[in-house]
Amino acid sequence: MSPHGPPAGPHGRPEDTFARQRPRLLGIAYGMLGSITQAEGVVRHVRLRWQATDHALVADPQAYLTRATTRLSIRLAQSVRSRRESYIGPWLPEPLGTGDAAGTGAVHSESVEFGVLLMLERLDLAERAALVLRDGLASPYPEIAAVLGVDETRARHLVHSARQHLATDRGADPERREDTAGRPREDDDAEDYEAA
C-alpha cells in the first residue's frame, strides 16, 4: 500500500471513482428521499461501505455504488414513511439549496422538481426507485433490474406503473386529490388548520 492510499485498480483509485459517482448517487438518494440532508447521509454511508470494500472484487463500480445507494435509500424511505404515519400535517420535500451543500451540477440537472417529489411520495418505493433511475438518470432497464434485484420485465413494469400513477395523479380533480397521507384534502381554511 502506498502512503497516498490504496493502489489504483483497473477503474482507477477508489477515492477518485467515488468522487466521479458522487453527484449521480446524490441525485438518486435525493430523488428517493426528497431531503438533501437525508440524501447526503445516504451518500456518506455508501462512501464508508465503498472504503471498506475489496475493490478487486467489484467488476462495475458504478453499478455497485448505484445499487448500494438505491437500496439504502429504499430502507431509509421505509423507515421515514413509518414515522410519518404518526405525523399530523402534510409532508413537504426539502428543496435543494444553491450552495455546495446541495451537491454539484449533476444533482441540479438531474434533480426532480418540488411538485414531482410530492407525487413521487405516493409511489411504491420500488416504482419510485425504478422511475428515478430511468427518467432521472437514463439508466438502462438491465441496470435497473440489477439494482432492484428483479428481472428486466419487472423493471419495465415498475417504470410503466410509476408513470401511470403519476399521470393519474396529474389528471385528478384538484378538489378531490388526497394529501400525502391518503386522506381527502380539505379547504385551506385557517380554522381547519388550527383545529388540526
From TrEMBL:
Residues 116-166 form the RNA polymerase sigma factor 70 region 4 type domain. It comes from the Bacteria. Residues 166-186 have a biased composition (Basic and acidic residues). Residues 187-196 have a biased composition (Acidic residues). GO terms for molecular function: DNA binding; sigma factor activity. Keywords: Sigma factor, Transcription, Transcription regulation. PANTHER family: ECF RNA POLYMERASE SIGMA FACTOR SIGJ, SIGMA 19 FACTOR. This is RNA polymerase subunit sigma-70. It comes from Streptomyces rubrogriseus.
